Amino acid sequence: RWRCFLLLITVGGFFGAYTFSVKGGVFCNAQTANIVLFGMALGNMDWSRAAYLLIPISSYFIGTMVSEYLALKIKKYRKLRWDTILIGIEIITVIILGLLPSSVPDQVFQVTINFVCAMQFNTFRQAEKVGMATTFVTNHIRQTGSFFVRWLRKRHEKKYLNRSLRHLCMILCFIAGAIFSTVLCAYFKDRAIWGALIFLVILQGDLLYADLVKENDSAVIAYGGRGGRGNRAFATPFNPAPDISEHGEPGEERIVKVELKMIADVGLVGLPSVGKSTILSQVSRANPKIAAY
User: Fold this and answer.
1) Sign of CA dihedral 170, 173, 178, 179
2) How far apart, in whole angstroms, are the C-alpha atoms of residue 91 and residue 116?
3) How far is CA 4 from CA 51, 95, 169, 262, in A?
4) pTM for the whole thing?
5) 247, exposed or middle or buried, with CB in 10 Å at 0-12, 13-18, 19+?
6) Spatial CA neighbour of 217 closest among 256, 261, 257
7) For residue 98, which phi and psi values (nearest 5 degrees)?
8) Average pLDDT for residues 34-53, to the nearest whole number?
9) 141-170 pLDDT, tens digit each
10) Is residue 71 within 8 Å of 198, Cβ to Cβ?
């Protein structure tokens, strides 16, 4: 769902501001800035600073590989998908980091948050078949401008404007997460990381709901548009059957991946009235309706 990605990138902005503000002045949500700082350290022959920056960079790299391996290995555990499991791991990690005393070295936080952010970025890649990074905004800035220009060229193609606005929303949520984190860090220092739990818990609730719906349960995945009023709404004593009406508003459009749950191990296929239901009633406890159709 689109809202999931907005929550994820808000967390990405939150983590970046948190580690830069109170955990060693490095960015743990993405590595572009850290790579630049690493190159500057090498240029200045500041070997200790370069080695220091290698810690978050290496952690991010390892986190990407681990998430790629686990996503293939654990596509689903019982009813829970890997996406849901990962957010649960992220919640537990944030709680533990918030409980650690201030005397714990910053590198512990850097390594852990980098590792988690890498797994998040590598796991959540597309929102409705649109590539969406959830820990940095470089690509979102490019896509916002690119799709906006396409819309200016083809005003009738609303999909370009919609995509541009979606990427813009991702940027704004990232900024909002950074602002929220900076304010919390000013008051709560190390414990400010617990602020990310607000977004992660909401996200976990959405993912669990999607995973754990039971038989005959229903879930709204796209809302229909408001219906237009018919000619009855415009009837008057002087015009009881007006020839006017309103168009309805368009509903939501989503691309949904549906996974079929198998409810049987064996199936009988055959022509009508050849005894399929009779066989089932004799060799199993099933009670099919048998009739001469």
Assistant:
1) positive
2) 10
3) 36, 20, 13, 27
4) 0.68
5) exposed
6) 261
7) -70, -25
8) 90
9) 999 999 999 999 988 888 888 889 999 999
10) no
